[in-house]
């Protein structure tokens, strides 16, 4: 059996061809079924504590990145002094990436509903020397309240949701809620270059609280929102509850393609956002921008 460390070196540094992709598939299964706890070093230099039973943490350990197309797009957009709002920060990949791009004159607000993940993210940001990251332990919704969250799959903590599953697992935790503008200072909201929202079906509730304040965003502000039609439907909502306020505020929508197959990560083919005038019928990552086109991947961390 090839040692996991050797497979990881092949996956990280080998050429983007089929043996590397095959090594990624083998390593993915091994780390999922025989998890380890380690420190993942990302492509942008941050060190994140991980347990490889979880999909996001496993891919950070294997590849040093997560959702490479979105990562590349963010790298092409953020500049020193920008602010980045991360709603659904999880272990902090996008928050720490943004902190590395915007420098000490910019600010990151990382909002995470899980008290455990939020506490870990505080420690991770400190350990990496990022003093420009403010972690908020809260869920984001339309108004103040409290939500119960459920973990459908222990191998994918990123799928933790406040939408009650049909086959209800035990409640994982409860978290206070507030609207996004209520969790941010006026300066953080109005200087935000990118707002990333990944809340596993609660995106319409987030938009209910944010849409009255869209006029306050800077002219070049962009939003990256994951939209989950099936989870929205279970609440009597539709993707239009998210997209209509954005379109009314002058934003156009673009789609970022996502594959979570280890082979696609090993192949390292980054694709930019593309216009998406079509109905949203499946889980989709969308960019909302007032520009006529969204920038192609660029910047120091744009490649996988």
UniProtKB/TrEMBL annotation:
PANTHER family for this protein: METHYLTRANSFERASE, FKBM FAMILY PROTEIN, SLL1173 PROTEIN
Domain annotation Methyltransferase FkbM: ranges: 86-252
GO terms (BP aspect): methylation
Cited InterPro entries: FkbM_mtfrase, SAM-dependent_MTase, SAM-dependent_MTases_sf
Coiled coil segments of this chain: none
MF GO annotations: methyltransferase activity
Lineage of origin: Bacteria, Bacillati, Actinomycetota, Actinomycetes, Micromonosporales
Listed Pfam families: Methyltransf_21
Keyword Translocase carried by entry: no
Domain of life: Bacteria
Record-given protein name: FkbM family methyltransferase
Keywords noted in UniProt: Methyltransferase, Transferase
Organism: Asanoa ferruginea
UniProt xrefs under NCBIfam families: fkbM_fam
């Amino acid at each position: 059996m090839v040692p996991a460390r050797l497979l990881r070196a092949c996956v990280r540094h080998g050429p983007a061809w089929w043996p590397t992709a095959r090594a990624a598939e083998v390593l993915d299964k091994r780390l999922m079924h025989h998890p380890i706890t380690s420190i993942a070093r990302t492509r942008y230099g941050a060190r994140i504590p991980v347990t490889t039973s979880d999909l996001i943490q496993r891919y950070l350990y294997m590849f040093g990145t997560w959702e490479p197309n979105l990562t590349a797009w963010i790298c092409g957009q953020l500049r020193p002094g920008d602010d980045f709002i991360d709603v659904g920060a999880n272990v902090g990949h996008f928050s720490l990436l943004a902190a590395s791009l915007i420098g000490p004159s910019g600010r990151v607000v990382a909002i995470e509903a899980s008290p455990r993940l939020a506490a870990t993210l505080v420690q991770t940001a400190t350990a990496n020397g990022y003093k420009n990251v403010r972690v908020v332990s809260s869920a984001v919704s339309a108004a103040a309240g409290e939500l119960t969250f459920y973990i459908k799959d222990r191998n994918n903590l990123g799928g933790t949701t406040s939408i009650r599953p049909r086959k209800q697992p035990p409640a994982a935790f409860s978290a206070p809620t507030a609207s996004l503008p209520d969790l941010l200072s006026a300066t953080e909201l109005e200087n935000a270059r990118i707002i990333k929202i990944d809340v596993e079906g609660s995106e319409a509730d987030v938009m209910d609280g944010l849409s009255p304040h869209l006029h306050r965003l800077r002219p070049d502000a962009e939003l990256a929102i994951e939209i989950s039609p099936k989870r929205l439907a279970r609440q009597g909502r539709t993707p239009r509850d998210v997209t209509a306020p954005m379109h009314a505020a002058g934003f156009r929508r673009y789609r970022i393609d996502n594959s979570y197959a280890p082979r696609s990560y090993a192949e390292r083919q980054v694709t930019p956002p593309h216009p998406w005038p079509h109905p949203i019928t499946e889980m989709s990552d969308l960019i909302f921008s007032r520009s006529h086109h969204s920038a192609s991947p660029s910047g120091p961390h744009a490649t996988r």
